[in-house]
Amino acid sequence: MEALDIYTINVNPSQQRTSGLISRSKEEKEVLEHFSGIFLMMHSQNFQEIFSTTINFLVERIYKNQSLQVIANSFLANPTTSPLFATVLVEYLLDKMEDMGSNLDRSNLYLRLFKLVFGSVSLFPVENEQMLRPHLHKIVTRSMELALISDEPYNYFLLLRALFRSIGGGSHDLLYQEFLPLLPNLLEGLNRLQSGFHKQHMRDLFVELCLTVPVRLSSLLPYLPMLMDPLVSALNGSPTLISQI
């Protein structure tokens, strides 16, 4: 994979990470597609064994060369490899969550990769709901815990927003059932945060999270008193917040 860096010789890595924009030549796109295709043809067991032991190397290569993210995209967009790779990737990312509170570049990378995993649930709901289900509790609770002690708590709330947006919409009942036990403590914590002294963009994010928790509306009825303050804040807030109501 290091040989693929030949296409980045004239690219400033720090500028690429900051802008998030990746301009690839036709040749590079074809090479990356063929490279990914080799692994897509493997037997599932071999695929899982390879990436279970090399996921750290792959993520490090993506960190140094964002163009390689297309490899992860390909694995997650394939019905055979998607649940396998998503499982390996999400377990790796869970171990790296503490880094999201201090290192901005790393945090941006891990957040992008988390979003890819969450997005794969919509692509292949039957397989990938089962993949995400055992990790949902840890993603939510660790995000809230680490946000309280980290230098950059905003990143953890962005992670929760990405999760809520990806699995919201009423079509992931398996995950909603898994989420229900988390609801009381989560709403209590978010309410406490949005009532505190924070910058406006943080307060807006807390309000949005309160109003977009991924559960059925009927499940929220017992918690309506906890949603009153966020609703009032949203009505007095930006058009984006009003649209969440």
TrEMBL record:
It holds the Pfam family Tra1_central. InterPro entries: DDR_Repair_Kinase (IPR050517), Tra1_central (IPR046807). GO terms for cellular component: NuA4 histone acetyltransferase complex; nucleus; SAGA complex. GO terms for biological process: DNA repair; regulation of DNA-templated transcription. This is Uncharacterized protein. It comes from the Eukaryota. It comes from Drosophila ananassae.
